[in-house]
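We modelled the chain as a single entity of 215 amino acids. Its sequence is:
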Amino acid sequence: MHDLKNPINGILGLIEILKEQIDNENSTELLNMMFRAADKSLNIIQDLLQIAEMENENFKLKTETTNLNRLIESLVKQNRPEAESKKIRLYIKQEIDPLPVRIELLKFQRVLENLISNSLKFTKEGGEILIHSYSQNKKAVVIVKDTGIGIPNGLQSVIFDQFTKARRQGLKGEETTGLGMFIAKAIVELHKGKIDLESKEGLGTKFIVEIPLDV
């Protein structure tokens, strides 16, 4: 599957070159559609590779002690331009600092990226997204809470399933692979933690992530 990534990356590069050379609105839109399709395929391949890696019986996390608050701050800074373009308030509440945990940084970063990205996709203009971190019962807790459109009751029980039927387009047509929440749950559980959600349709969604503190 690794071999599939290179030709798709090549296709994406060629499409970008063609877009610079074509001055025709219809042709440009067709190339944009091709780019989105190839990009979606690449994202699915990357997600499947990550799942395969974690399901390998020899897989072990490469953990290090990290201040979880710094990771949250970095991701909020990274996502703020998108939030501002959608007129969404993206902000942080930290009850304790530092918040030390042992994590494989890039993998756990993927968890929070997925949750923030999900909120950005399903929160309307003028809405809010809060990332709240604190410690409780020797656990580090991160809550990602939004004022978005919420998740229908019938989809909440399957949202963490692989290739879930809960896959939806974002409010602006953003595509998802249907694997993001499955991967987030798998990564959290590898860190001896858990992830839950609370949501009411039309009233927003709250994801709660807990992992052990590094004490």
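As a brief sanity check on the tokenised model: The chain has a mean pLDDT of 87. The longest strand covers residues 128-136.
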